[in-house]
């Protein structure tokens, strides 16, 4: 019974404690075989245990560039990624591999506590390089 009371007290405290508002801006350029992909809808998502949160949405411009800023309240460091769907090359049949998930590296958040606003540039993402994989984590070279 005492354990149950402790759990209830802890759960009550959690509802009164606010998480940290964390903000991130992701930028980059989408290409298909070195050609810019325009008007591609991109979702900025935040990975969670139960379900992922939509932080923001955007669209690539005529040159394939995107810049999306989103924020969320979390108790720990955010785990953001971008999600979009596109075939590369475009003449291929639709498939599960058309959905791409590109994660922001954990190293971006090493100063959590000192700052709560982060930026990450995916740089040029040529989908021809990753077309064989349905999910691809982005790592710095």
UniProtKB/TrEMBL annotation:
<dbReference type="InterPro" id="IPR038479">
    <property type="entry name" value="Transthyretin-like_sf"/>
</dbReference>
<protein>
    <submittedName>
        <fullName>Transthyretin-like family-containing protein</fullName>
    </submittedName>
</protein>
<feature type="signal peptide">
    <location>
        <begin position="1"/>
        <end position="19"/>
    </location>
</feature>
<dbReference type="InterPro" id="IPR008969">
    <property type="entry name" value="CarboxyPept-like_regulatory"/>
</dbReference>
<dbReference type="GO" id="GO:0005576">
    <property type="term" value="C:extracellular region"/>
</dbReference>
<dbReference type="InterPro" id="IPR001534">
    <property type="entry name" value="Transthyretin-like"/>
</dbReference>
<keyword id="KW-0964">Secreted</keyword>
<keyword id="KW-0732">Signal</keyword>
<comment type="similarity">
    <text>Belongs to the nematode transthyretin-like family.</text>
</comment>
<dbReference type="Pfam" id="PF01060">
    <property type="entry name" value="TTR-52"/>
</dbReference>
<dbReference type="GO" id="GO:0009986">
    <property type="term" value="C:cell surface"/>
</dbReference>
């Amino acid at each position: 019974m005492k354990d149950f009371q402790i759990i209830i007290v802890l759960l009550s405290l959690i509802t009164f404690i606010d998480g940290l508002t964390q903000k991130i801006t992701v930028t980059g350029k989408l290409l298909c075989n070195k050609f810019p992909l325009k008007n591609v809808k991109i979702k900025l998502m935040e990975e969670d245990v139960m379900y992922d949160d939509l932080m923001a949405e955007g669209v690539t411009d005529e040159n394939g560039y995107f810049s999306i800023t989103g924020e969320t309240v979390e108790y720990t460091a955010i785990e953001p990624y971008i999600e979009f769907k596109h075939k590369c090359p475009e003449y291929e049949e639709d498939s599960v591999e058309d959905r791409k998930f590109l994660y922001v590296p954990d190293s971006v958040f090493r100063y959590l506590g000192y700052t709560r606003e982060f930026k990450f540039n995916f740089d040029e993402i040529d989908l021809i390089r990753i077309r064989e994989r349905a999910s691809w984590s982005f790592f710095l070279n």
